[in-house]
């Protein structure tokens, strides 16, 4: 069963919430800006804070499956050390709220397969402990923020199939991912083979572009030949099928020409 409707703002009151998974539903609307109130996701050192104490005081054992770093991981009592937010495969619209960057303890953030627009907030690069970030299959535009070069712990990264432009920031991590992580955009620079101009725009292959235009001209030549044949057929040949007087006159003309040719050949033979 898929959950419809919007994300209720009451979720922001859940201060101990560490793992929010609303993926694969029919949720629409915008991402609440009040997510920065999720205190448990805003703390980076959980071994010496109230969240760890809360988990310790409630010493029951529990399991959960989380999709992190592109794989399924099963967490038991260590779940209190994991923070993740998965809103993928919904119909969320609007921009990614910059308030998300306040969640400094996030290890995994997945907003893929939605209808999100606007630029990627530069402040997301401040979540330096991030291990998995997936913003693919949205309608995001602009550049990949330079601050993403600060994400040194990334093991899974995907911004494919958006409308991103410009040069991919240089870092120890961003160049280690496959080209598929950046596909479906207008990006340039390593790890892609497409080079950038001095302004950070992709270089257009003039030679290939010229061949493309030449191929286009050849295609139009073929089209004009076909159109000429069709027009000639309907103007000259088609009337012979539908107008009897034209057909009889045509055959008489052919017969006359044939007789003249026969006489000419006979004369030349003598």
UniProtKB/TrEMBL annotation:
Its main location: membrane. The chain crosses the membrane at residues 220-243. The keyword Hydrolase does not apply. Signal peptide: none annotated. It is found in: Membrane. It comes from the Eukaryota. SUPFAM superfamilies: L domain-like. Keywords: Glycoprotein, Leucine-rich repeat, Membrane, Receptor, Repeat, Signal, Transmembrane, Transmembrane helix. Pfam families: LRR_1. InterPro entries: Leu-rich_rpt (IPR001611), LRR_dom_sf (IPR032675), RLP23-like (IPR046956). It is a single-pass type I membrane protein. GO terms for cellular component: membrane. Belongs to the RLP family. This is Leucine-rich repeat-containing N-terminal plant-type domain-containing protein.
């Amino acid at each position: 069963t898929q959950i419809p409707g919007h994300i209720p703002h009451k979720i922001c009151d859940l201060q101990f919430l560490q793992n929010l998974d609303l993926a694969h539903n029919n949720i629409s609307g915008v991402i609440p800006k009040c997510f920065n109130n999720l205190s448990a996701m805003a703390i980076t050192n959980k071994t010496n804070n109230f969240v760890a104490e809360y988990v310790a005081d409630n010493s029951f054992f529990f399991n959960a499956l989380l999709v992190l770093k592109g794989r399924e991981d099963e967490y038991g009592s260590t779940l209190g050390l994991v923070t993740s937010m998965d809103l993928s495969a919904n119909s969320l619209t609007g921009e990614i709220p910059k308030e998300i960057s306040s969640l400094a303890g996030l290890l995994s953030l997945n907003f893929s397969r939605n209808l999100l627009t606007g630029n990627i907030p530069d402040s997301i690069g401040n979540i330096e402990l991030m291990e998995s970030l997936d913003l693919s299959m949205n309608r995001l535009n602009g550049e990949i923020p330079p601050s993403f070069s600060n994400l040194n712990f990334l093991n899974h990264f995907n911004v494919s199939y958006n409308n991103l432009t410009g040069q991919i920031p240089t870092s120890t991590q961003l160049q280690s991912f496959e080209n598929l992580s950046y596909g479906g955009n207008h990006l340039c620079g390593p790890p892609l083979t497409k080079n950038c101009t001095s302004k950070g725009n992709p270089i257009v292959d003039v030679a290939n572009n010229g061949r493309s235009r030449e191929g286009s001209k050849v295609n139009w030549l073929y089209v004009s030949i076909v159109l000429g044949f069709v027009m000639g057929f309907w103007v000259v040949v088609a009337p012979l099928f539908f107008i009897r007087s034209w057909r009889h006159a045509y055959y008489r003309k052919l017969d006359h020409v044939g007789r003249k040719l026969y006489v000419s050949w006979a004369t030349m033979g003598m």
